[in-house]
Amino acid sequence: MLSIHTALTREPITFMRHKHHSISVHFAQSILKRAVEVGLDETRLLTESGLSKALVNNSEVRITPEQLSRLMQSVWRSADDEYLCFGSQSSRHGVFNLMAKQVSHSASLRQVYRRGTRFYNLVAGATKLKFEEREQYARFYLALDKPELDPEHVLIDFLLLLWHRFPSWLIGQRIPLRKIGFMHGKPAHHEEYRLMFPCKVVYEQQSNYFEFEHDILSAPVVQSQQSLNDYLQRCPLDWFKRQSYFPVYTRKVLNYLEAAQDMSLISMADIAEQLHTTIRTLRRKLLEEGTSFQELKDSVRRDEAIHYLSQPDMPISQVGRLLGFTEAATFARAFKSWTGVAPSTYRKSKSH
Predict the structure, then answer these.
(1) Which of 6, 30, 161, 300 could cysteine-pair with 2, CB 3.0–4.6 Å?
(2) CATH 3.40.1280.10: does it fit domain 246-350?
(3) 201 membership: H or E segment, kind and range
(4) Mind listing the pLDDT tens digit for each residue in 323-332?
């Protein structure tokens, strides 16, 4: 990891260097609830994913991308259904791999979407996909055959995420979304959409869709068969890794914070100076982007804390020091304000 001096003297980078972040437990709760409804073994799913019932039952905590990925893989295997039992018909485990290998031979992003939607419409009866080109933009539509089976919108969220991130990976660049629309109203977990979908979000639409600029449809597929094989081995983990699709000032501040070895040494004044602006201007820019320096700093500390607390051999006091807290009690209060539970409670809940 870069030192604070190095981080503040280099040009801001486009992609995040740090890998530690967290996800709302909402998704795990909904997946497990449905799994139990269809008769899957909850204890087995929790064990295979590295989660505990106590952790999942606390709606205020957050989990790691690895935990959510393992949970989904466990459901895929146990139910033989990549639609996580939220569809009117299953999409058997391995269908995505077959589609991915077929579309990887496409010449362009346009072909990826055309071939991918055609493939799923032939083999997966629970969903109806549609790809539409207009003069200025393109749209990808997703409809569930029986949306009432997905009351928490987990399958909708997951599939729209997949159909944005996987094609982006194939062409080696982010597909810049203009807008994403949902048929449902604003859900309780809507804050997660800011990380999942880097664009304007609208609700209560006539269909579920996202749209992007037409010009990128000509972008060529750049991944090799070997890189695809490696990618498929990691699925679905890469879809949940936080993407660096943030507004410009939010992204720059996060880059500096995530590169710092000791966040207690970095201040808003330091970052403003390196960005050749004033504290007042930086504060205003972040406010316009819907965030603040303290909020970003806390989010980085929170996600780092969750990662370190997942390491059973690391003392809690050491976790606090790594995050810039000189007193264990101060760290404990901060962690509880971020997650709703004390660090010791969080760690204990992971082991029961």
Answers:
(1) 6
(2) no
(3) strand 200-202
(4) 888 888 999 9
